[in-house]
Amino acid sequence: MARRRREAVDRDLPDFLDVLAVTVSAGLGFRSALETVSRQFGGAISEEIQTVLHQISNGASVRSAFTGLRDRTHSEAVNEFVTAYLQAEELGAPLGDTLNQIAADMRRAAAQRLRQKAAKIEPRISLVMTMVLIPGALVILAGGMYLALGADTFGGFLGG
Hints:
Layout: H1 2-25, H2 30-41, H3 44-57, H4 62-73, H5 76-91, H6 95-157
Helix pairs in contact: 1-2, 1-6, 2-3, 3-4, 4-5, 5-6
């Protein structure tokens, strides 16, 4: 169940960050944008962001709330987002550009993981196709010979 939730977070995070970047670029403050986007977005990532916002509103520091998010999700994508956000906040980097770059990096990493997964599955598919197609082709070939030569002639080949 935790793995499925992490996969959902990893899948939804790039889109969430794109919408968040647009919202921040439109002039809304980061926390307000987080709240707005998480309310509208839905899913596991929204629940996690709502937890972060709840922790911040109850007195937790931004750093501790976001590191808690990283620790709860055990997601590489969330780890990248939290690290980049905290660095951008400390260094004063433009947040919209940072969010767009993080989302693009996450999409590239997800595509690479899918290519690796497909490369691992390809030999299995080839084996299954070979094991199914060759016997099937032999049955069709033998059946065609049986019908073309007739039962008597074909039986003679087999010693009958």
